[in-house]
Amino acid sequence: MIYIRSIVYTALMFISFLVLAPVALLPSFIVGERHRWQIAQAWASVNLYLSKKICGLTYTISGLENMPEEKCVVFVKHSSVYEIFIMLRYFSPSSWVGKYELMYVPIFRGVFKKFKLIPVKRGRGFSETERVRNEGRERLESGNWIIIFPEGTRMEYNKSKRYGLSGSILAKETGAKVLPVSHNAGKLWKRRGLLKHPGNIDFIIGVPFETSGLTLAEINAVGKKWIDNNVVL
Q1: Are 89 and 40 in contact (CB under 8 A)?
Q2: Which terminus of the chain has fewer CB atoms gathered within 10 Å of its CB, N or C?
Q3: Contact residues for 115 (Cβ-Cβ < 8 A; gap 6+)
């Protein structure tokens, strides 16, 4: 039964994307930025609802009071698609730091451009770091959260790896705070595999911390320690 429910939900998830993505790609004089984000939040809400009704996935979120009025850099673990729905639902508008390779997928490229993704080309050195910093500063100044998966890839919910420097560089160079977000979505929605197991997913939003006076390694260490220590196992 879990297998069938997972197949049905996964099909509906992709259908909902294929239905709403073209609307989000309409020219700005038809669909403005505010309405574009309403579409993104609607897609997230639809999938949170469908995953609950079909797969039995629910969530609780604590720490909403910790979200600062001034937008900042958000560190969050990437272990499934579920956390993307949550981040879109609660952290909008936002710009996401992601792998440049995603831009090679035509429909993704269009959506990411409209939603101001900050693509990172790995191994490009100082020039790439400077571009990410400048684009990040521009997004923050325009009132967007900056969402980054600092491990750079999907991870098991109870495992971790060394953080990349893109997020810490962006925070330090712009003077932005870092807001850590912990969750255990990967416990029920594995990073690889089709099955979505029923149960409750816990999201915890931490207290944002200042980055001034910290080295890049220290910024990563503070964020990583908090996230690793606050995963509900």
Answers
A1: no
A2: N
A3: 24, 36, 40, 95, 96
CA–CA distance, 67 with 27 (Å, rounded to integer): 32
Give the pair of three-digit tokens for residue 189: 């929605």
Where exactly are the structural domains of the chain? 60-229
Write down the architecture of domain 60-229 according to CATH: 3-Layer(aba) Sandwich (3.40)
Query: What are the tokens at 15?
Result: 């259908």
Contacts of 133 (CB under 8 A, 6+ apart): 169, 170, 173, 174
Q: What is the pTM of this model?
A: 0.92
Residues 59-88: tens digit of each pLDDT: 999 999 999 999 999 999 999 999 999 999
For 211, phi and psi rounded to 5 degrees?
-110, -10
> Phi and psi dihedrals of 215, rounded to 5?
-80, 170
Residue matched to tokens 């995603």: 102
